Predict the 3D structure of the following.
Amino acid sequence: MRKIILFALLITACISCTAQSKKSVSILGDSYSTFQGYLQPSTNYVWYNAGKHDNTDVTKVQQTWWHQLISIKGLRLCVNNSFSGATICNTGYNKEDYSDRSFCTRLWNLGCPDIIFIFGGTNDGWANSPVGELMFSDWKKDDLFSVLPAVCCLLHELKAAAPKAEIVVLINTEMKDEITDGLAAACEHEHVRA
């Protein structure tokens, strides 16, 4: 009997080690990365959910880009801190203050993943947030209300907050050229994959 219990404990430990040996992924995103029931915190606004949705055909978590990626690559989800409608900078739609949901604010709540995917910038363009200029240090609060200084600050602070994580920025198509080019330039400066 003791051999059976010892064997069961050994198998459980091996399964646990295998599950934990998978690389973990955290996501800092906007609506494209949301799915109801998969967000931390759960109070973040959701775009995709399991119910009928007039504006999208994504109704299963398995249809999201990130779920497909982690399934194919054998990764595990650590934290999905995505927020529908969120901007990278603190200026949102109708020039409202989005400091409560901006990427710069949420970067501190990603857990301790091996890989961090950042997928944003689309709402900054759609909201006509001020673009600003690339700025690689000495950010003041007001600087973060423009996209490019906010991107630079975001990458710099994220590297400091998660020094061992691989950071990958996903750049959406059909964004404003100045945002696309600025994201790429900021990534190059911070040695982050884009």
The chain is about 35% helix and 10% strand. The first strand starts at residue 24 and ends at 29.
